[in-house]
Amino acid sequence: MKMSRKALALGAALCFFAGYSPADESAVNPQVVKVMNEVSEDRIKAIIEKLVSFGTRNTMSNAGDAARGVGAARQWIFDQFKSYSPRLEVRFDKFRVKKQGQRIFKDVDLYDVIAVLPGKTMPETEVWISGHYDSLNLGTRPAGGAAPGPGGDAAAGGGAAAAPQLTPADYEKNAELPAPGACDDGSGIAAVMELARVMSQYDFDKTIVFAAFAGEEQGLVGSQLEAEKAHKENTVIEAVLNNDIIGTEVSGTGRTGNASVNVYSDETMDSPSQELSRYVREIGERYIPSMKVNTVFMGDRLGRGGDHTPFQWEGYAAVRFSTPNEIYANQHHATDTLENMSVPYTARVARMNAVVAASLALAPKAPLVFRAAGQGGGRNGAGAAAGGTNAGGTPGAAGRGADGAAAPAGGGRRPTPLITRGRSQYDAQLQWRPAGPDSSIKGYVVVVRPTTAPYWEQQIYVGKVTEYLMKDVSIDDLKFGIKAIGMNGGESLVTPYLYPPRVKAPIETVQ
Ligand SMILES: [Zn+2]
């Protein structure tokens, strides 16, 4: 039978789309959906109930009691992690912290509880999901504790709060007060623990780390020590998803909303943390279309702090999930109870974490956009060869994502990304290279947006190539990036093409 011309044309179209179909991106992975669906509201509730039952989880409380206080709580979290799967490698990271400031009124042993689910094909690359298990009761203080809160939920960034300065004696007196911390941050820890249970039943390519930090309320102490340790050990952390105060959907003013979550990153355009927050939005809303991700390009709520920040200090991509509807009056108070929060909301944010972490852990590493070492000959005479770069692709600004830091060889100029105007001088010519095993990559997507747009507006699947020419597209007024698509359809983080800022050079003048 002869095929009609129409059928032939259709056939040709199908052939074309077999290689470049939209399904090559924006794919939904069945394993990610399974993980999302297994997150249990009932279990999250039970975890928060148990956390509250310790009376207080104040880092400075009596750690020797088997049923009450910070020692009992951390041991329970450790044992729970252990019980989820023999594949979880569970440990305490113990730090002896010296007496300092008001809040650490004596030397204290601080324990972060860490559970590691080793990756199958890229175990050296880690995705972290975190929260803080310690709680705080600041005792009597002026009602309302005007925003931005009584010293912040960690006073590290502090200073904005007008709350009266408490003395070390006050903190000592308050250390054993009831501090249920159901929302701050029982909600975050419940998400971390529930995801450890669910995700440890599955295989992922990258390593997933579930972290319960201590000492957040003393000034991000547990997370800072953990981030410094990771940096010192050259740990490659692709993303930190921190969860703090993800348990209320009605604010102190009565404003409501359970269909969105704030994701804080930082204020530097195209920083690794901002790219991560774009990823959270794109992947999160793809799997959970009923939930909006508010990417807030700020470090945190004004004048307040959280455990993602110390990871940013070490050059890692890190974001904070938090509700847009906080109740300040309950924070750091005996009224931060299960009754005053919303477990369904916590479960929604936990699922958002699940799809993002699972997607990242099943995706290729973000492509590299600098010349490989030894490849020599930069353009514009910038002869320095980059020794690789971080996942975010930012030379110098952040060197901890993957494959070591980018540093100009021999003290030359800073390396420049592989983006040029092409032979014509009027095109956009992009080059890149894979950061991980090439066999795991199906192809690449070039992303483009105006400098004033928050999100990538154009996404062009270009197939399995390592360069792409966009005719008559100016590289002088647009932002460009590249991401890798895995054989399973998984998407990597975007590596933006960032040009190093021009550095001021001294000019000699003659008298
Ligand atoms: Zn908190």
How are the SSEs ordered, and which strands pair?
Blueprint: H1 5-20, H2 30-38, H3 41-52, H4 70-84, E1 89-97, E2 108-117, E3 122-132, H5 168-174, H6 182-199, E4 206-213, H7 221-232, E5 236-243, E6 260-264, H8 272-287, E7 292-296, H9 308-313, E8 318-322, H10 343-361, E9 419-420, E10 428-431, E11 441-450, E12 458-463, E13 467-470, E14 478-486, E15 495-496
Parallel strand pairs: 3-4, 3-5, 5-8, 6-7
Antiparallel strand pairs: 1-2, 2-4, 6-8, 9-10, 10-13, 11-12, 11-14, 14-15
Description:
This protein is 25% helix and 19% strand. The protein has 511 residues and is an alpha/beta fold. It folds into 2 domains: 30-361, 3-Layer(aba) Sandwich (Aminopeptidase), CATH 3.40.630; 379-496, Sandwich (Immunoglobulin-like), CATH 2.60.40. It has an 8-stranded mixed β-sheet with strand order 1-2-4-3-5-8-6-7, with helices on both faces. The protein is globular. The chain binds zinc ion. Zinc ion binds at residues 132, 153, 184-185, 216, 244-245.
